[in-house]
Design goal:
0% helix, 119 residues, mainly beta, seven-stranded mixed β-sheet
Length: 119
């Protein structure tokens, strides 16, 4: 099985910055993509940012220009640099990994890390 461990969440003031990290370990074969989702109380989980094995990157519109996703392939680690944080960014952030095993795709989730932005 695959384990995803997140770190870097916390409490910050509006306009501040946080850097989230997610390290993957376990039965890793061929990673298709790693990314970050978030879920606020009363809302559905949404994709925040994702980077594929080929380097393609997607962001949700609300974070474009403020968040940056990056990866360290040698360490199977993905990062999310969050700048100019807003109270609306408050949510539990989840790391996500998709990998291919014998032409099938599997998906894994981290435990989540809380990000709270005060006004």
């Amino acid at each position: 099985q695959v384990q995803l461990v997140e770190s870097g969440g916390g409490l910050v003031q509006a306009g501040g910055s946080l850097r989230l990290s997610c390290s993957a370990s376990g039965r890793l074969f061929s990673i298709n993509a790693m990314g970050w989702y978030r879920q606020a109380p009363g809302k559905q989980r949404e994709l925040v940012a994702r980077i594929t094995s080929g380097g393609n990157i997607n962001y949700v519109d609300s974070v474009k220009g403020r968040f940056t996703i990056s990866r360290d392939n040698a360490k199977n680690t993905v990062y999310l640099q969050m700048n100019s944080l807003k109270p609306e960014d408050t949510a539990v952030y989840y790391c996500n990994l998709r990998q291919r095993i014998m032409q099938s795709e599997y998906e894994y989730w981290g435990q989540g890390t809380q990000v709270t932005v005060s006004s």
